[in-house]
Amino acid sequence: MNIGYLGPVGTFSYQVAHRAFPEEQHTAYTTISECLDAVAANEIDVCLVPFENAIEGTVNVTLDYLYQNDVPPIQAEYILPISQNIMVNKQRSSDWQEATTVLSHPQGLAQCHDYLTKNFPHIKREAVSSTAFAAEYVSTHPDEKTLAIAPLFAAEHYDLDVVRANAQGNMHNETRFIALSNRKLAITDDPIETKTTLLLKLPDNDSGTLHTMLSTFAWRNINMSKIESRPTKTRLGQYFFHIDLDVGADNRLLDNAMVEISLLGGTVKVLGSYDVYKIK
Amino acid sequence: MNIGYLGPVGTFSYQVAHRAFPEEQHTAYTTISECLDAVAANEIDVCLVPFENAIEGTVNVTLDYLYQNDVPPIQAEYILPISQNIMVNKQRSSDWQEATTVLSHPQGLAQCHDYLTKNFPHIKREAVSSTAFAAEYVSTHPDEKTLAIAPLFAAEHYDLDVVRANAQGNMHNETRFIALSNRKLAITDDPIETKTTLLLKLPDNDSGTLHTMLSTFAWRNINMSKIESRPTKTRLGQYFFHIDLDVGADNRLLDNAMVEISLLGGTVKVLGSYDVYKIK
């Protein structure tokens, strides 16, 4: 199988792609949208993209794409622990504290916000497309006083000095990645949970009817483990809802709830019923 | 009064500060957190910060700060229509289509994503702290092939050429700004609506009880115009809820609902009951 992931080599998505599918072929994409485009067009068998970070919240690019486009179902979810580390070119190991710029993905910068504010109050924070790009830039620019924030394996890959490990503010940081595919995946690991993810649009965009819609799950004892709203991008105050339910596929109560929501005027798009795995 | 806003001169917050409080003194802050810190410390009388954009959704920095810190109540909300425009240094008016870099606030870049992808597929998109910073940079660097995405008044202020007006993808784009203050504001305009905003944390972080909590509003006919979840930043899967209700202050039914949520084990933080105004 061909596994597409959010590249380049050395990203967290790369790490998940290699740990979850070690024997398969891997293809890097430069943006989340391109990776999702590729699986929708059947150019790859599986698309692995980040969906939610414990600190920064949902990856809006992924959620908005899933709302706006037709894609294969989610077949599995992988949870990866996240650490962010400050690293520098080895030729700069002695004067790294004089750095004037720090590069990272916006989430890397956000996760190390407290460390940077305390230790580098005047440093220029520059957002780049990935933590791996930041590490590669620092490795190829020894003449610049620039730091990168990236995972440990990026330091190994690009031969950088880690000057501060675990610089992220929160020690329980994790990111969820989803695997979208038209094929059922044969996974031998034990899942930690099973869930169903759906997107709900209310009739005439009236959030006041949300309570009625949620009742269709509640009175059937279908537990909701997540709900969040996102703007539909048409006008201020119009939202769709991203809902996770603690049930798997082929659940008669869930099927009945969906029919009822439809009768009440709601629109439901099921993104998939799937198992969740933890990557160690 | 002293009105603090997210600066520098020329931002959308600047525009709201000057239109809503034309006669008052204005102080620019470089980050949303610093502006909120200042009103919490009584260094300014009113703090004006962005809270939600119709396309990009909630401004997470603002919401997370309000959840984590004690601040004066929201006294008013202002809705500003947003247009984003491509501008260039006047010395570059003839060769602007050869630009290699475009600068803007991340929301400016996101709002013009479709225009850039279609017209400048290979341009380097660089995120800076504000649209005003982008405009100022372009005005002071005529030698660089750089564009700025910023509002029209930034082009006036920094004497730039607008080469493409309304480059944002969405024509109904608006941003909500909130005014936090310990003082009641004397506003003579007619409000378009009145609402109450609160943050709700569920008992033992179980989203499954959300339906019960929302019932306390529903069976009292208190309409909910917005609900969204945000991670509490402690662990994946733990959220608080940001809820807008269509009621004002001194509402007995609302008071009863609050008491009931508390009895059910929920924690509520009321951010304010306030009027909403539209800026033309």
TrEMBL record, chains A, B:
Instruction: Quote the SUPFAM superfamilies the UniProt record gives.
Output: ACT-like, Periplasmic binding protein-like II
Q: Does the keyword Amino-acid biosynthesis apply?
A: yes
The UniProt record lists the keyword tRNA-binding: no
- Recorded catalytic activity of this chain's protein: prephenate + H(+) = 3-phenylpyruvate + CO2 + H2O
Query: Which Pfam family is an annotated match for this chain, by its short name?
Result: PDT
The record's listing under PROSITE patterns reads: ACT, PREPHENATE_DEHYDR_2, PREPHENATE_DEHYDR_3
Q: Which biological process annotations from GO are given for this protein?
A: L-phenylalanine biosynthetic process
* Keywords, comma-separated and alphabetical: Amino-acid biosynthesis, Aromatic amino acid biosynthesis, Lyase, Phenylalanine biosynthesis
Which pathway?
Amino-acid biosynthesis; L-phenylalanine biosynthesis; phenylpyruvate from prephenate: step 1/1
Give the Enzyme Commission number.
4.2.1.51
- GO CC terms in record: cytoplasm
**InterPro entries recorded:** ACT-like_dom_sf, ACT_dom, Chor_mutase/pphenate_deHydtase, Preph_deHydtase, Preph_deHydtase_CS
**Which top EC class is given?**
lyase
GO MF entry, a single one: prephenate dehydratase activity
Which superkingdom?
Answer: Bacteria
| Record-annotated ACT domain positions | 198-275
Domain Prephenate dehydratase span(s) in chain numbering: 2-182
- Marked site, Essential for prephenate dehydratase activity, at 175
NCBIfam families from the xrefs?
Answer: PRK11898.1
Query: What is the designated name of this protein?
Result: Prephenate dehydratase
